[in-house]
Amino acid sequence: MKPRAWTWVWASVAVTVLCGGPVALLAWGAMAWSEIGETKEVDCAEVMTFARGSLPVEAEDAHCTAAHWQDTQATAEFRMPRSAIGGWLRTTYPTGRASFSCEEDRCVDVSFDEMLYVHLRITYEDGDTALVRVTAFDT
What are the tens digits of pLDDT across the range 72-86? Predict the structure, then answer.
């Protein structure tokens, strides 16, 4: 008895689905994993909310990024008047402590229940401007 032409078509489809499906799933998983942990630009309000603070009203040139995987790391960088730094730090991070090692003009570290850590690095630029870098990460 001679097999019908459609039998070979259905057999080819079945082999393709059974073998190609897992291969396609592996390819999709590899592509998805390659993007994990990539730093992406995000809204600065989101970053500062994550860092349990707020962006100062005087902030200029704000640029914020975040990377997610098992932990989240978010960074905010902005400029503000040098004279407003002290007041902003007292109201935003009242429990902040000076960092032990600091290569910038001022460094403040804050811990929230050992679940979220915020590092502030402040560099005084020429004139009355300060560059503020806020890095927040959870564990």
Answer: 899 999 999 999 999
